[in-house]
Specification:
single chain, 344 residues, 5-stranded parallel sheet, 12 strands, globular, binds nicotinamide-adenine-dinucleotide
Length: 344
């Protein structure tokens, strides 16, 4: 029986993984803490590690895993910006769940836009205090407005379909455009300039880091609604705060935050928030911030668990690893997987 050590797990994860443990004949060991250089030794005696979005899979973590005889890390997520791929290559195979439910994230994204535009979260709080006033809750119709979508992969495409269903015009930017009826690909500069609302659906890479910075915000329409359900560092938090303060940004929906690693998924309600920028953002009435929650549907959790278990089975059985990524194929380049069926 193979032993698999899970990091950063919560009860809602465990239910779905436990349901598959018997079928795959794996012993599952759950750690609540996020994987880092200090606690990686918790995996000793195990055959594999399963990690999540805010686990730090650094060079030192990978070296320790390799010295413990662990040569596979299964990411139970799609994004992989938290992995040192150069260090992993030749030592530790990295597998992931490339798609589990683009609908979960795309539907949540539209939920954020709707809630921000019509101030539903503010109305909820008011009514709980028997304040039935409508002052300050004015929104706009989505019909006929322009949505700018950055990154038109699996999630971006589902999200664009939802927008088209609302009767919106859709502008898109992606280095690899996929022609789609009703969608007009434009430059990033044009997207910022002409969109009433902007949604981020690209991965975090060297090229996309701070894709929304002070210059981009200056270029946007006054009162733009900005939603980020991808990765926090796509937006420069300092420029976002400035844009919200001077009214350039009308509202922001953030399911991710640049420095979320330490806080998201944890309960800090009894403490003073040490991150001043996060505290400032949360204090603003036109910001809706959630804790990297967009993926959280029953369907997504089941698919994540099933694909992760299957990725590990393929590794242990010496089979091809279709969901493996390395420093080459992560950038869309050809890698040895084409003939070896594994990246190395
Ligand atoms: P995908 O790989 O299917 O699509 C990503 C798209 O982004 C591709 O079309 C790619 O060409 C494009 N892209 C790459 N670099 C770009 C750039 N610099 N500018 C614009 N576009 C660029 O990925 P996906 O499944 O659609 O997921 C998108 C992102 O959503 C993931 O990278 C992840 O960060 C995030 N995500 C968040 C959650 C959540 O719970 N909040 C859940 C899943 C995924």
């Amino acid at each position: 029986m193979k032993k698999v050590c899970f990091f950063d797990t919560k009860p809602y994860d465990r239910i779905y993984f436990d349901a598959f443990a018997k079928e795959y004949n794996f012993e599952l060991i759950y750690c609540e803490s996020k994987l880092n250089e200090k606690n990686v030794v918790l995996a000793s005696g195990c055959d594999a590690v399963v990690a999540f979005v805010n686990d730090s899979i650094t060079a030192q973590v990978l070296q320790t895993l390799s010295s413990l005889g662990i040569h596979v890390v299964a990411l139970r997520c799609a994004g992989y910006n938290n992995v040192d791929f150069k260090e992993a290559y030749g030592k530790v195979h990295i597998v992931r769940v490339p798609a589990y439910s683009p609908y979960a994230v795309a539907e949540f994204t539209m939920g954020m836009f709707l809630s921000l535009n019509r101030k539903i979260y503010r109305a909820y709080n008011r009514i709980r205090e028997y304040n039935f006033s409508l002052v300050g809750l004015l929104g706009t119709d989505f019909y006929g407005k322009t949505m700018g979508v950055i990154g038109t992969g699996k999630i971006g495409q589902v999200f664009m379909d939802i927008c088209l269903g609302f009767g919106m015009k859709v502008l898109a930017y992606d280095p690899y455009p996929k022609e789609r009826a009703g969608v007009r690909y434009v430059t990033l500069e044009e997207l910022f300039r002409y969109s009433d609302m902007i949604s981020l659906h690209c991965p975090l890479t060297k090229e996309s880091y701070h894709i929304v910075d002070a210059a981009a915000i200056r270029n946007m329409k006054d009162g733009v609604i900005l939603v980020n359900t991808s990765r926090g560092a796509l937006i420069d938090a300092t420029s976002l705060i400035d844009g919200l303060k001077d009214g350039k940004i009308g509202a922001a929906g953030l399911d991710v935050y640049e420095e979320e690693g330490e806080y998201f998924y944890e309960d800090y309600s009894g403490e003073v928030m040490p991150d001043d920028e996060l505290a400032r953002i949360i204090s603003m009435p036109n910001v809706l911030l959630t804790s990297h929650q967009a993926f959280l549907t029953k369907e997504a959790l089941k698919n994540i668990a099933e694909t992760t278990m299957e990725n590990l089975r393929q590794y242990f059985d010496g089979e091809a690893l279709p969901n493996e990524i390395c420093y080459q194929c992560a950038k869309g380049e050809r890698c040895k997987k084409e003939h070896l069926e594994r990246c190395f």
